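Most newcomers find our protein records easier to grasp once they have seen one. Sequence and backbone structure share a record, each on its own labelled line. Nothing more is needed to start thinking about how sequence determines fold. As an example, a complete record with its sequence and its structure tokens follows.
=====
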Amino acid sequence: KVTESASSAADFVSILENHKEDQVVFRMNNDIDLTQYDALPIEGNTIIEFNGNTLTVAPNAIKATNGGALTLEDSTGQGGITADRGTVVVENGGTLIINGGTYTTTNYTRGSGINAKDGAKVIINDGVINAAYYAIGSDGTVDVTINGGELNSTATSLNGTWAYAVNISNGRFTMNGGKISGVHGGLSLVGNTVGVINNVEI
């Protein structure tokens, strides 16, 4: 395991490029703006420790893809990711594990806080997603497990369109804990989705 400190966008991108095959831990030293980068694929085993800082990203730029695993955690509870939409995309065998942090989107007409695409595996143990549209949205066959945390959507038809907080179109959805809250609806499981719901608040 390699531990690196990131204080700037250049640090972040350099670490990502130099440790594609390694297990790397990013420890953020301050807020970092990555909006100039349209694609930041995670294909290795990467852990981001926000350390109370905020990562600002372009829509759908950070991707756990091609079997890569991304773990997000925050030791102070004040850090996380913010984006217009798509704080993280998970696709093509990628895995996302959220152990803490706050994930915020501002686009109230489209997009997701967490964008789970075909082949995605998402595990949320803690943390808060505050989304203007979907908190978690899916496209394709996915596997999503919620063990804790909060998934919130403020989407409302007053803005011309609306969304459920969580929308899973195909695959498996398991919820063992946590809370889902949506202005127009909390949870939508459609298509061939198998849902297992235990001890939750919706």
Observations:
- Residues 105 and 122 are 18 Å apart (CA to CA).
- The longest strand covers residues 95-105.
- The mean pLDDT is 94.
- The two ends are 38 Å apart (CA to CA).
